[in-house]
């Protein structure tokens, strides 16, 4: 069964690694009870870099407990729920294999998968791991950003129920492979998910697809 291991909220941190903003909400800790998810974000969470985070299509971020275990083994340090900056730590979900536009019911909320997370220097600084952006990109298991279609409360232990999956069959991992890893062979397949992408990400993906078409 796919389920929520933990619901996590930000503890705002400062430090040189936070970049030009000077503070970050990437450090998230397990909440003590149910948390309300709305179309504008997660109640009680903090978004500091509003240029790159906090849009409606980034209302929440989910990451797999299995991926935390993978990185823990590679880093030689235990990563716990919230350490990837995720609001939802999931188990048994394989979230990066979800389809763009896939809809989930969790607790009292309905969430829609909008796209992959793109690693950044703040993430690398938080983990204190130079080269993390390159390693994370190469690994390609990014977790997913989520829009909230139906606001509601989510708690640790809630089951994840897939309500619908688009016919295009484009996985989050495949979109990331094209846009961030240069997998131009995926261009025509990924083109099928363009209508399900937020406008900003649709334009970026369309440019990658067009570039691939020109060079093949």
TrEMBL record:
Gene3D superfamilies: PK beta-barrel domain-like (2.40.33.20). Residues 29-163 form the MOSC domain. PANTHER family: PROTEIN YIIM (PTHR30212). This is MOSC domain-containing protein. It comes from Saccharopolyspora ipomoeae. The lineage of its organism: Bacteria, Bacillati, Actinomycetota, Actinomycetes, Pseudonocardiales.
């Amino acid at each position: 069964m796919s389920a929520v291991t933990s619901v996590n909220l930000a503890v705002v941190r400062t430090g040189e690694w936070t970049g030009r903003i000077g503070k970050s909400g990437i450090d998230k800790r397990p909440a003590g009870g149910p948390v309300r998810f709305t179309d504008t974000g997660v109640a009680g969470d903090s978004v500091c870099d509003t240029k790159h985070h906090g849009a409606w299509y980034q209302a929440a971020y989910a990451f797999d407990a299995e991926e935390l275990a993978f990185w823990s083994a590679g880093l030689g340090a235990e990563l716990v729920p919230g350490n990837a900056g995720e609001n939802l730590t999931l188990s048994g979900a394989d979230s990066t294999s979800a389809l763009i536009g896939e809809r989930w019911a969790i607790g009292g909320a309905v969430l829609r998968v909008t796209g992959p997370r793109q690693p950044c220097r703040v993430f690398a600084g938080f983990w204190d791991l130079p080269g993390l952006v390159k390693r994370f990109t190469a690994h390609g298991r990014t977790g997913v950003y989520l829009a909230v279609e139906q606001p509601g409360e989510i708690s640790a232990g809630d089951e994840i129920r897939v309500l619908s999956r688009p016919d295009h069959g484009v996985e989050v991992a495949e979109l990331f492979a094209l846009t961030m890893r240069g997998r131009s062979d995926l261009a025509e397949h990924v083109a099928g998910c363009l209508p399900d992408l937020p406008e900003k990400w649709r334009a970026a993906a369309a440019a990658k697809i067009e570039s691939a078409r020109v060079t093949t």
